[in-house]
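Quick start: load a record and inspect it. Here is GTPase Era:
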Amino acid sequence: MQPPPFSCGHATFVGAPNAGKSTLLNRLLDHKLSIVTPKPQTTRKKITGIYHDDRSQIIILDTPGIMDPKQSLHESMLEITRRSLRDTDVIVALIPLQKGEEPFDRAFADELIEQWVRPADKPFVIALNKADLVPEETVHQVQNEIMERYHPIAVPALSALTGSNIQELIDLLRPLLPLDEPIWPDDILSTEPERFFVGEIIREKIFLQFGREIPYSTEVVIDEFKEQHENDPSKKDLIRCSIIVERNSQKQIIIGQKGAAIKKLGQAARKEIEELLDRPVFLEIFVKIRPDWRKKKNLLKSYGY
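Running the structure step on this input writes:
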């Protein structure tokens, strides 16, 4: 008996900030890969997650949310999304459902599909996220409207938060991918290095701990990542990083009175980093001022944008 055909290819998640792209990626992988916070624009760079099962390997690209660019950083984030859409095999446009008279943002959905998805000229699915927030009748009405309005291949309704109908999305994507052998071993969840995720964890803790503009005006740079446990298991890995801010007042907020805020930040980040790496680390955090770094293309390039 012939084994079922195997599919392998790229699927790009695209949508507004806070549409649930990162939560969906984490749910599909059953692992926290993308950082998630209640604040929009948490994801700044493309994050690659690799889903495996016995019939497919889906290389998922979680992209920054589409927004009106206010500075060079936003333009760089949007260019990451454009490149991901060009290089993918299939697109998942994620539209969140919402309570109230309007079950979804039609104006943004028009922009998303007409200005971003269609120009990429790839097969696309429109997934309705947060379907658990609205009545089933509303879900069916929206599915019919979206199918008539945009003509995607399918309109699955799911909840990235609860995990409902996730398998339906996988079953829809599989036949849209090339028939091919897996590219990556089945124990690999991402192509990004450990130091990338260490920086993302620290950024997440900044988003969760500080309010207003602080999270948006910061960047995290890993200056040193020394794996010392390999030669001596009693030694902790050494991680030195810099939190980049734009003004001295922001630096003072991150450090806090008598260093209390940065100590709290470091403790929260170290705990999760140790869980990620499954080994103890020594984490040192410095705060550096780089005025208007979000507007300077040379600095953005050096930070990986």
